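Supplementary Note 3. Input sequence used for the single-chain structure prediction.
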Amino acid sequence: MNGPVTSYIELGLALGRHIDGMVDAYYGPPALAERAVAGAPAPPARLLEDAGRLLGALDTGEAEDGVELEDARRRWLRAQVIGLHTTARKLTGESIGYADEVELCYGVRPQRVDEELFVQAHRRLEDVLPGRGDLAERFVDWREAQAVPIDQLPGAISSLCEDLRERTRTAYGLPDGEHVEFELVTDQPWSGFNYYLGDLHSRVAINTDLPVLSTSLGHLVAHEAYPGHHTEHSRKEVGLVRSRHWLEESIFLVGTPQCLMAEGLADLGLETVMGERPEPILAEHLRPLGIRYDHEVAASVAVAGEELGYVRSNAAFLLHEDGADPDSVADYIARWSLTSPERAKKSVSFLMDPTWRAYITCYIEGFRLCRSYVAGQPERFEALITEQLLPADLT
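The predicted structure, written as C-alpha cells, is reproduced below.
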C-alpha cells in the first residue's frame, strides 16, 4: 500500500495516539494499526509536517498504488485531511479560535443565534406544557417524570431496536450478518456512543449518569443503531470498503467533516423511518412495559422546542470565545434550554472536553443540513448512509 489513502490512515492513527477518542473506529489493514502503535508516538511537529505533505500530494494528484483517485473522492479526502492538519496544529500548541477550529475541522462555520429565538420557543412551550406557574419548573418536572428506571431500559431498548431495525431494512436495506449489542455505562460526557467494531458489528453504550428519559429513548436508539451510526458504518463497510476498496472509510476520525455528516443523518434517522411524528409508535413500545410516556405532550414539546438546540451553540461561544466561566455557562444552558442544573452541567462538561469542544456543531448544523438535503426524499437519505458526501454537497 502506498499513496494518499495509506498516508491518511497512518496520519489518523498517529494522531490518535496523542488524543484519546480521536479514532472513533478502525477496521482497516491490521499492518497499518500495528505499525502505528510501534515505538513512541510521533512528535506533533512531525505530524503537522506529514499533514501538510499529504495535502500537497492530494493537490498534485498523487495516485494510490498506481490508481488515480476520482475527483470527488480526492476532494473528500482533502477535506478530511484539513481537519487532521488542524488537530496537528493544536497539538503543537498553536492557538486556534473556536469558530475557525469548527470550520476547518467540520466544514461549516458556527454562528451565534439571537436569543429572541429562544424567547419565542418558550412562548410556544407555555401553551403546550401541562400545569401552571414557572415555565422552567414545569418543563423540568414534566421531563424528569418521563425517566425510565434503569432495570427497564434493556427491555425498552430491545423492543425499539427490533422495530427500527425492521423499518430500516425495509426502507433502505441492511447487510446480511450485521449486528448491534447494547450496554449501560456511567461516567461519560455523552448520552450514547456507537463503537463500530468492523465486520458489520457495533457495540452501543448508553450512559446512565443521568436518568434516561422515555421522550429521548427512541431517538437515542435510532441515532446510534438503526438507521443511524451502525447502519451507515455497516452499509459503507460493504459498499465502499469491501466492494470498491476505498480503505479511507475503514477509519472514522473525530475532528473531520465525516463526523458532521454522521451526526446529522443519525439525528434525522428516527423521522425517516417513523415519520415526522413518531411519538404514537414509540408509545406502543413503552407503555406495555409500564414506562411512562406522555406522547401527545411529547409531540407538541418537540415541535415547540426544536430551536432550543441552538442554546448549546451559543454556550460554546460563551465558553471558548467570550471566556465565560463554566458555572455561568451552565446557568445559561439551564435558563434557555429549560433543563435541570445537573443536565446543564453535563452539557458543559461535554463542551469543555478538548476532544469534543467543537463537536457540538456536528449535531446542530449536521441535522439542519441533512434534513434540508433529504427534504422527505428517501433516496437522498440512502445516499447519506451509502456514499461519500461533504457538508458542501448538501447546500
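The chain has a mean pLDDT of 95. The two ends are 35 Å apart (CA to CA).
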